[in-house]
Amino acid sequence: MTLSTVDGIGPVTGWSDEILVAGRWRRGGGDLIETRDPATGAVVHAFHGAALEDVEEAVAGGHAAARESGWRDLLPHERARVLYRIGDLIEERADEIARVQTADTGKTLGETRALAASAAGTFRYMAAALETMEESVTPQRGGSLTMTVHEPYGVVAAITPWNSPIASDAQKVAPALAAGNAVVLKPPVWAPLVSLLLGRICEEAGLPPGLLSVLPGSGRIIGNALVAHPGVGKISFTGGTTTGRSIGRVAADKVMPVTLELGGKSPTIVFPDADLDQAVAGVAYGIFSSSGQSCIAGSRVFVHAEVYDEFVRRLVERAESLRVGPGTDPATDIAPMVHHDHRDQVAEMVRQAVEEGAQVLTGARVPEDEVLSEGAYYLPTILGGVRNEDTICREEIFGPVAVVLSFEDESELIAQANDNDFGLACGIWTADYRRAWRIARAVEAGTVWINTYKQFSISTPFSGHKESGLGTEKGRDGIAQYMRQKSLYWDLTGEPIPWGRH
Ligand code: NAD
């Protein structure tokens, strides 16, 4: 039985114990992976992940498939046709994808439906970008016609985190396939199911067998083996900065390109002239949606002293009005965190901050409701009485925890916003467009939202500054990130080259 038979949430029977290795569905040779529904702790599915031998086979199979299927040499619109079909099938099966992902990650169905729609859009956008991608004939500076063309790397390894599986898978797999590569996708052990489903969908859409392998397994073993593998020509990684740094070191030894999309500790800034209703809603959404498990979460909230008391009071009220519950309940705002272990880590970081002097304005505990007692829940939390240099303001928490800080002077604010190792995103709430422009240009961040937050578009490039990343995803140039350039000089004159005169 295949994954497509799944139609509900909770313990699932009948799923096949198979992973996708070089065009074949078969039992993985690695350890048993048990994915759990974080709303209840119940096992959703248990199967064997990939072993090192599976990595060998997937990489060799990727090269063979790229060669034998002619994928790399198909005309762009021919490759695009398959990508459009993948997008359509994702859309057709969006409800199933959403349910699987909610069971695996705990997220609300509203969010997982949006992630499935985003993944479908990504495949379609990359198909369209591929069809319209142009090579350039460069200005001639001699007798040769000069041009530069893009070619695939061969086999790309895509390593993804657990927080938005289908969307982050699509963000890597779509452009890498569009570019003519084979892809080995390594999803995280906490949320691997939707990536396996994507493998089924790609197969059904007519992607030549072997071009996509899906190898769930531990990062330390399977992820590391992929990064170090001599047959892998590029790594596209999304995850934590510590992991990204270690991948970067291995890549440096191989002189291999990497794209790293890493963590964040993003400032979100409220000025007194902001529409406070919008700002309260936007700041709450920016930090508490996805239960804060979002790289771009607006976790450091800077509020101008003039409106600090009123804004914080209203933000606390908003946080306390959010409904905590399972992702399957349409009324839920705050779903469980991905895993009980992760919830406990978040709780421990908050406990330490409080021990070091932070003041709890709301939350900082698990809900008391008996119905929620089995789940990995944590209440939306706001901490005050902190300084920007405190650990809780410097480190990524990856949970529903905001720190609030007051400021008065614009240059002092910019210095504080930038005084952090990360540089992923920033939010600015003000009615003054000149101020918005000044701050947006001065803040060190890859994405800045003005009077909005967490809006995304596949057509707009995404990257992290400083320790939040290296390289860019999305946008029309997204496909070129999975290609290397080759320049051609083509003599048109027939004149003897200098040594030809002897
Ligand atoms: P993680 O770094 O622990 O794991 C990410 C992936 O890397 C997983 O598949 C994991 O198995 C694998 N991995 C772990 N060690 C590895 C190694 N040594 N070699 C190769 N692969 C390895 O991150 P996580 O806990 O899954 O995700 C949360 C992090 O991801 C947060 O820091 C968050 O900010 C970040 N994130 C960033 C973005 C972005 O676009 N910038 C988006 C989503 C999440």
Automatic annotation (TrEMBL):
The Aldehyde dehydrogenase domain, residue ranges: 25-487
Active-site residues (renumbered): 261
Keyword Oxidoreductase: yes
PROSITE patterns (UniProt xref): ALDEHYDE_DEHYDR_CYS, ALDEHYDE_DEHYDR_GLU
GO molecular function: oxidoreductase activity, acting on the aldehyde or oxo group of donors, NAD or NADP as acceptor
Keywords: Oxidoreductase
InterPro entries, alphabetized: Ald_DH/histidinol_DH, Ald_DH_C, Ald_DH_CS_CYS, Ald_DH_CS_GLU, Ald_DH_N, Aldehyde_DH_dom
Family: Belongs to the aldehyde dehydrogenase family.
Protein name, per record: Aldehyde dehydrogenase
Organism this protein belongs to: Aeromicrobium piscarium
Lineage: Bacteria, Bacillati, Actinomycetota, Actinomycetes, Propionibacteriales
